[in-house]
Design a protein that fits this description.
Largest sheet of chain A: 3 strands, antiparallel
CATH architecture of one domain in chain A: Orthogonal Bundle
Distance between the termini of chain A: 37 Å
Oligomer: homodimer
Number of strands of chain A: 3
Structural class of chain A: alpha+beta
Strand order of the largest sheet of chain A: 1-3-2
CATH superfamily of one domain in chain A: Winged helix-like DNA-binding domain superfamily/Winged helix DNA-binding domain
Radius of gyration of chain A: 17 Å
CATH class of one domain in chain A: Mainly Alpha
Chain lengths: 110, 110
DNA sequence: AATTTATATGAGCATATGCTCATATAGTAC
DNA sequence: GTACTATATGAGCATATGCTCATATAAATT
């Protein structure tokens, strides 16, 4: 175990923003769809069932946060996961939630 | 590496909520203050410099999300970190942000 | 019971966020 | 050039979120 970080106000704002970017189901949906690799916007629209405008906006949000890379090829734009820590982040949160829900379920399961 | 999870819409909403809880500087401040162990509300008010009302609200939010435990003793209420995955979560995000900022700094540092 | 202390909460305001529709931009094909 | 396709974006609305002030609740003290 490392000693805990000391965090100043600015750092906390940055961290909060990062979490905020991950705090939308559609953005998580997009990240999830990109787990398998680079996809075009159109492909992501099809996969997620969102509107083109909305998907485009969320992709921008993710890209501005440096969680996605953007590559333009002709008419299409391809996005891909830029920050592999996303995978671990999702694993951590999913694991924690699963444990929590299992515990809650246990209250009834006797 | 484990194979990536399959996530349905409900799961994504839960995960998004969890991230949302972490997406406020004051809540991160409170978690950070609790890294060293259980604290009373009053103590947390002093440490964070927030108002009593605001700190109390944020603590509730964190407790409702099962990230904090609540223990009442006489007049005081003590909160503590309930989910140790928080530590790893913060480490991950901090590490990722540091890397990102270092890269951005490098653009100028030549 | 009345007073004091610690915490929680209702109400209201201000700001942020997400969504949609329509339109703009940029690249391709003719 | 014109027409077409893929993506981005401005505007406006609806909802969510956070903050503060005042007040409520709950426990301890006298």
């Amino acid at each position: 175990m490392k000693s805990p970080r000391v965090l100043n106000a600015d750092a906390l704002v940055l961290i909060a923003r990062r979490f905020g970017v991950l705090a939308e189901p559609m953005r998580l949906r997009l990240l999830h769809a990109l787990f398998g690799g680079e996809q075009s916007v159109g492909e992501l629209v099809r996969r997620t069932g969102g509107t083109q405008a909305n998907v485009s906006r969320h992709l921008q949000t993710l890209a501005h946060a440096h969680l996605l890379t953007r590559r333009k090829d002709g008419l299409q734009v391809f996005y891909a996961i830029a920050d592999p820590s996303i995978f671990q982040l999702c694993e951590l949160v999913c694991g924690s939630l699963e444990k929590q829900l299992a515990k809650q379920a246990g209250v009834f399961a006797r």
